[in-house]
Amino acid sequence: DWQVLESKDNEEIRPYRADPKIMMSLLDDLSNLRANSFVVDAPTPNEDVSLGFNRPTRTVSLSFTEGENVTLILAHPKDDNETLYAKTNQAKFIYQVERQLTLGIIPLESHHYRNRTLDKLPAAARISSLELIDLFSDQSIINIQLPDDIESWSTYLLKEDYECSSAILEVLNASVNFKVNNYLLDSFIETYEDKTGKKYPWVYRLIATIQLPGGETSRTETREYLFSKRISGTIQIGGSRQKDVVFEISQKLIDALYELTGDITLPPEATDQPVNNPPEIEPVAIPQPILRKG
User: Fold this and answer.
1) pTM recorded for the entire structure
2) How far is CA 70 from CA 11, 30, 63, 88, in A?
């Protein structure tokens, strides 16, 4: 299996499982990488430096079970944000490649390659209780426990006629096999801040108590996940202290949490409410020239 090796703040290297789909996509993209144009046949050392190969942007080394290893080197001249050049260890030729597309298939963030399954319980494990807490009010939105004499949550929820039972089951399924849509940070933080500087505090805490088989008695573990408010129809941030990571949660979990919390501000047209007309904009005066003749 593929692994992601990461070292943060000069700590020991930590291995993570890589996502097989991400890795297959990367290998496929690399194998289909094409040059836009031929640049230099046999570059001199000065030409290598002028094109940026003394400080490459990316270096990708590929090892094979048979045959010679291949190293792809990508570089660009200093202060050049438009072009990108490529060469390999198998030839001296230098080519120009599509910059945005090529760099986009090889992100530098190690979490991009991590397996999208964050947590997966053993087959014999059983969730014994589930609690979803509103952190602002410190009130439980749901707090339920599965009786010892009932085997399945679906049977219990049907018997007790729980509202939003389908959403509760989806949250339970997510706790059993927790998948993320995308990783955002390699370490957990108390308030997530996006690239625009907007901050998203944690609004909900999900606590799942799990019974794990082991010996004569069952062992009990707790899994906790934190969620922001729903940012849009397809984006909601999650975090795990236990896994030391921040991520975007799956669409199924977004929808289930919304059904349980109603946490999204809908535009008036989505709720059949009247839409106010925007105020009229006054016309702009014709600009006068700064410089006048005579």
Assistant:
1) 0.77
2) 29, 11, 7, 7
